[in-house]
Model the fold of this input.
Amino acid sequence: MIRLAVRCRPAEAEMVLAELTVLAPGGVEETNGDDYIEYAIYGAQGELPDVGALEAVSGQALVEVVATEVADDWADRWRAFHKPLEIHGSADGTSFWLRPPWETGGPGEFEVVIDPGQAFGTGAHPTTRLSLQLLLDLHDRGLSGGAITDLGTGSAVLAIAAAKLGYSPVTGYDHEVAAIAAARLNAAGNSVELFLSRLDLKQDFPRLAPTVVANLTAQLLEMVAGSMTPENLPERLICSGLLEEERQRVELAFEGLGLMPVEFKAADGWGGLLFEGKA
Done:
């Protein structure tokens, strides 16, 4: 197992993290140094992004890229970092209990079990939490159900959560082969039916359901907006993956299509938006 770490200047760390999430959609480990912030990803030799690609996305903010071998017991020690998490929507509303398989059930009305060993996202990242909160808000308003599309499904946290809330059919797309494999395993572990396909949004665009969730970077969200047409437009759209300061650019991208922002949530510098079509 290899630990590949990118160290960058603190002033530009959020920009670097936003770019890294494209290369490492499962999220990263963050460590603060004296004069740098370090983002690390884990994987076997040959499974990690190329060092040159990491240097390219970091640009002038880069301090250094450090690769180290991880001890054989890393997989066991890694479990200590993944704890159950309860996620609420609106105050006193419905909640999710998000947990790894070795932890027990909890107080949430709905439970999502994700194996961190599959990488590609465990649900703990702020952008995933914000997306789940917005899904719960729709549920508490009596607006959940029907078909839903998950763009950039990763380990299928959001797709599984949507299925638990009564959405059907649930369709998820991701350009990574390993992500689709992980999503299928997690769907089976949660006893839900998902329709999963490999798709590169930069080259192709799917038919959208009336509800769409898209946990992507601001740049990719703008690309999604540019690919939508009046004939292929959702009624409701949940977006996350954007930084708080990127809120306006994402809102403008979708407002031009008639999708209006009706709710915004923020956590740890990240933002989540709910858009609804004009009546």
The CA atoms of residues 147 and 169 lie 5 Å apart. The longest strand covers residues 259-267.
